[in-house]
Amino acid sequence: MLPAIEYSLSFSAPSSGEREALSSLTPSPDARWHEKLDAAKLVVTALHEGSRVGVGIVHTSVTAPTLADSPVELGAMFVHPAYRRLGIREQIADTRLTYALSMGGTPITVIDNRNDASWRHFARSTQWAVEQEYTGYFTGLPMTIWVAAESAWHRTRSGLSSLVPAQPGIVLPDAPFGSHHLASAGESDASSIPA
């Protein structure tokens, strides 16, 4: 039986208590991780029985040398190893992409070329196209910038017409299980709303 996963959306940088809890999901919550959290426009959190088991961020702290107009990065996605292969990554990814497209900017994501699982995912996806490869500023290793294939910037660059202008009231994908208001114990965060 699959565990019941709940999803929470927050449209602002997390509070210090929430930041600490989210940081525990990452392999290395370094200065760059905190820059992404500081510039967060959307934080999607997956929870199982109240414990955080996954996180994904849409942020504007873009350091990759993208040529995209108004880039918003879908960065810092992590799922606890015990909860992988349950569709959590896909739910977080779909929610982030839908939201980023609704912002009117150009959604990008940056993949370390050594990450075979991410490479396989993006290479077979019709939602993403390679923009360019570069040497990572922080790692010194080959990285690839992927751009959302539905973004107006990518479609125009490819000689295609835009699909639909940004819709500020866009409906985010339904979570496959319940939803949960995310706030630390004893804390109320008015900027968090149920998924």
Task: Describe the overall structure.
The chain has one domain: Aminopeptidase, CATH 3.40.630.30. The longest helix is centred in the middle third of the chain and has 15 residues. An 8-stranded mixed sheet has the order 6-7-5-4-3-2-1-8. The C terminus is likely disordered. The protein has 195 residues and is an alpha+beta fold.
Distance between the termini: 23 Å
Overall number of strands: 8
- Identify the CATH homologous superfamily: Gcn5-related N-acetyltransferase (GNAT)
CATH topology: Aminopeptidase
Structural class: alpha+beta
Could you spell the SSE succession in H and E letters?
Answer: EHHEEEHEHEEHE
Low-pLDDT segments:
175-195
- Give the neighbour order of strands across the main sheet: 6-7-5-4-3-2-1-8
Brief descriptors of the model:
single chain; about 200 residues; alpha+beta; Aminopeptidase; 8-stranded mixed beta sheet; about 25% helix; disordered C terminus
Structural topology:
Blueprint: E1 5-10, H1 16-23, H2 31-38, E2 40-48, E3 51-59, E4 71-79, H3 88-102, E5 106-112, H4 116-124, E6 128-135, E7 142-148, H5 152-157, E8 192-194
Parallel strand pairs: 4-5
Antiparallel strand pairs: 1-2, 1-8, 2-3, 3-4, 5-7, 6-7
